[in-house]
Amino acid sequence: MQQQFNSKNENIFVWVKDGLYTRNAAKVSVFDSSVQGGDAVWEGLRVYNGKVFCLNEHLDRLMASAHAMMFANIPSGEFIKNTIFETLKANGMLHGAHIRLTLTRGEKITSGMDPRLNQSGCTLIVLAEFKEPVYTNAITLITSSVRRNGPSNLDSKIHHNNLINNILAKIEANVAGTDDALMLDNYGFVAETNACNIFMIKSGMVFTPNADACLPGITRKTIISLCMQNAIPIHLKNISITEMYNADQAFTTGTMGELTPIKMIDGREIINRSNNNLLATIQAHFKLLTETEGEPII
What we know:
Strand 11 (205-209), helix 5 (218-229) and strand 12 (234-237) form a beta-alpha-beta unit. The mean pLDDT is 96. Strands 7, 8, 9, 10, 11, 12, 13, 14 and 15 form a nine-stranded mixed sheet that branches. The protein has helices at 33-37, 55-68, 77-91, 164-176, 218-229, 241-245, 278-292; strands at 13-16, 19-22, 40-48, 51-52, 97-104, 123-130, 139-143, 180-184, 190-193, 197-202, 205-209, 234-237, 249-254, 258-265, 268-269, 295-296. The protein is globular, with a radius of gyration of 20 Å. By secondary structure, the chain is an alpha+beta fold.
């Protein structure tokens, strides 16, 4: 599942703070909070057919995360939206593109942890690349020994840039030779993978973990909504790893990979004993949504 360099991205323009820069010239200061302490929030967005999918939902979450982190002088949603459009148009990206949208606390007057050292407002970064969904086939997982952060540690409801928790789990997956890692919460229930939310299907019903120790993802929310709209039974609950092993089908959701089937967890094959391909039905509903909805690039 290792991503490869796409030569189409060699000469892209990136928005950093106050304007567009070529890929090689796009840089942040060594005094920026993202460098000093991973002090930033971010969103991943995808472009389909000249539209940015779920743009307003992503901007709302970005603003909520920035507010929770007490960022000062946050740029307006309208400014960020126009900056995204300007970046996409500069790169001629109307389809098959992924955006990494980052908002840092900004530059500090001197190095240090104290947010009062940030006196010049936030730094906005719009990194748009030509990038298709990263998972091309069904994936394998191992259960990581690294637990997903709960609200008593570093709340996953804040979509922050401090991803060490996830990266340590991903390293375990790399060493084990699997595509990604399944992360449990502090009670031993399934939370999410190191990169995505997770769902399972059993006997015609869809299940996904409660959003206690996982990010309540926007694609996750979309799938829950699609199931409810199309009379597909769905239930949010604490899910044990044993239940995941015995699912008829399992899949991950996220902007980077859309909906991706899981074929094996910890060496246990996911066997569709019900012979009901409900995942294909959900994928079709999601594909139709991406083809018809989104914010037009203007």
